[in-house]
Amino acid sequence: MQNLALNNRRLLIAGASSGIGRACAILAAKQGATCVLTARRLEALEETRAMMERPETHLCVPADLSDAESIHPLMETAVQGGLLDGIVYATGVSPLIPVSALTPEDIELTFQTNLFSFMEIVQLYSKRKFGKPGGSLVAISSTASERSWTTGSLYCGSKGGMDAAIRVIALELAAKKIRANAILPGFTDTPMVEKTRCAIGEDKFTKQLPRIQPLGIVRPEFIAETACFLLSDAAAQISGVTFPVDGGVLS
Amino acid sequence: MIMTKEEALELFAEVVDCEVTELKDETVLDDLEGWDSVSKLGFIAMSRRAGKKISSDQLRGFTTVADVVAALAD
Q1: Nearest C-alpha of chain A: how many angstroms from B17?
Q2: Which chain B residues have a beta carbon less than 8 Å from that of A126?
Q3: pLDDT confidence tier of residue A251, bands split at 50, 70 and 90
């Protein structure tokens, strides 16, 4: 399908240092896109870049998205090589903390990284100084937005917020033909889920997973496939959608 | 809060997502691509933040950029 090509697209990939963000960057480059990669750790971003096709065409811009002040400079740098045709927001933290043990700092960090910084990036992307008409925004949400996980109140809450916001963003940006969608990954084989596996216990996790996620653990490459589809012209009529790629967990 | 004509134009350019240089006194608001129901709400929000309370009724009365500047600038 020619419509899946991402040639001459300039994309910002937030969270490109590992996991889903890295997989999205690699596949997007394969499809012809030029990427601006951002995350906290420059070395990890450079590792991602080395795994991508045409590494010299992509840009690494380290930024801490838990810090609201970092967003404007990040976006200014990102558009130096040209306006953005799309964004993949794959940055996130998933602390597992019972509500009874929450601190204001925990709440602030999770919502800032997972939701507030996302909204600030969208605010800038909506301006013609940063975002080209006809673009595509892909937010990496989670099945956690639709299911409850004990000790996941912050994660679930922030992802629920992301899903609801995406629907409004889709409505408002439609005038510029900018589409906005969210992908809801199930348990995916990434460093973030690795932490959860350690917390629960590897044996317990491996035993329980098939019961709740019949197709087994999701490979990040399949999240990237869906993200690249949503970024492409093949998805030109898709906006405001929350798209599970979840190994069957929501069923 | 004191607002100059320049500041009023900058605020309005931000709301309709265009360059300040595109806004002349006689520019008709309905001719601006970025002036729609959504940006009208954005205008009220941004004006309030700048210390200017503009009502929807007032807004309905605006025809040109000059009207906007007159309502915002001191």
Answers
A1: 6
A2: 17
A3: confident
